[in-house]
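Section 3.1: Structural characterization of target chains.
Under the original work plan, the team committed to producing a structural model for every single-chain target entering the pipeline before any wet-lab resources were allocated. The record below documents one such target. The sequence was received from the expression subgroup and is listed exactly as submitted; it comprises 162 residues.
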Amino acid sequence: MDDGSKHDHCGWEAVVLAARERARSRQAVMVERFGLSGDVRYDWSMDDAQITWSRDGEVFLTGRLTLIGSVSLAQQTWLWSWANESLPHAVLGDIERVRQFGEENDYPVLPWPGFSYHPELVAEARMVAASVLDAEGLWTESMDDGQLHFMVHDLVFAAERQ
């Protein structure tokens, strides 16, 4: 869904590179700091944009989700959450800021409602979105016919919430 406008390819590549490094380090810190490896169960809801992690039936961590976008494997397409009117408002968070960032900087992909599915392009879009919104991490939920791509924010140990 390219609108034909020119963009600063070198600028976009620099943004993607910085976002990729940020995402890698943040993801590693999130997994290590919050103990998200091993025998961990998670539950999530788009209605209230919440995710919880538990171990042995005890919730130990909570966080907030922002849906970045979705992939239809059948149609081989990506759709930004801001362009999907069927989603609960809570799960959109501040995703509109990602679209605005793309428009303001003449970057491709970010302001387009959707595009043809290419795994690398989806990876770039989600990492840049996570950088723009200062997410703590990224998370993907896969289903038979698609994928949901989320940012994770506001992680708090359950003991600290009480």
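Residues 19 and 128 are 5 Å apart (CA to CA).
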